[in-house]
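Suppose you are handed a protein chain with no further information: no name, no annotation, nothing but its sequence. What can you learn? This example shows the usual starting point.
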Amino acid sequence: MSGAEFSGRGPECPRQGHFWIEFLRFAVMLGVVGIHVSADVITEWGKVPAAWWWSAHLYDSLIRGCVPLFVMISGALLLSKQEGLADFFLKRCRRILLPFLFWTAVFLIWKKFHKAPDMTLFDALRDAAGDRVYYHLWFLYVIAGLYLAAPILRVFVRHASASELTLFLSLWFLLSSIVPAVSKVLQTLTGEPLRWALSVPFAQGYIGYFLLGYCLTRFFNSAWIKPACPLWLASLVLCIAGEGWLSLQAGRFTGFFYDNFSPNVVIYTASFFVIAQGWGDRLKGLLGTKLRSVISSASGASFGIYLMHPLWIDFYNSGWGGFVLNGKSHHPLWMIPLTVAAIYLPSWGCSALLQKLPVLRKVV
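A reasonable first move is to predict its three-dimensional structure. Written in structure tokens, the prediction is:
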């Protein structure tokens, strides 16, 4: 998911004094759980009451861009560091490789006994190689790829000027966001996608979010907060109205405005990152010491929460506890936040417990 700095035991922990990063990571992890809960309703267009669908759509629109935000936090913290290649890869192997191997094995076993009893060892190895183990583990593949490129990107950002970094991000936004969006619109209207021959491979994919997080932190200016607020609000309204209208016209959920690289999500994510950074100190002052401590603790457990929360989703969906709990058990307006809390809290507890165990602490 994202991409990013989850905890001190997972990807890079935040620098001291950066409470806004801890709060952002805490809030975004709640959002990731919320996206997976609301998906049960959003993908059921026409099968659930319209009011239910719109309630879930409203929640999901509010928490768009969670994984890109994780990737941006990762870039902000990782690309500013300087260390030798040996130290760099040794640290990242401990933080990513061990959790990757452990949780891949856990979810393959879970999948074997609860979803795919006919799965063979070859099937398991093929799924692990092709990112088909479980729906949330794709993020580990993304972050591992970004970590491999990070030492090279550090050299680039260290010597690149603000203008050169702006050029790179502009290319990325054009090729990863604008062009695909235009292509989808044209395909919808004419039946033919945009035929775009120009390719700049290194300026595409999540690497853009990785660098965007670094740039927005390195060059942060408090004057950005004022325009960021209406941009954030406009992108939110566009997602709510745009996806609702498109789905209504298509008679199905389209997901056009939900894509992590759609222009509205890029703008939403970048503006939210700026707002969080700009208001971080103010927020820290408003919150009491105990509440800040709770947020910091939850933030530190985010990697484990991310890795294990699908187990709780499956537990509640299966009815093993004697009841079924998900976003469509009753009206999503209150069932989604209730289900998110019921998943997040035990995941947090389990993650905190694993962090106290000498061996298993390395996998969360």
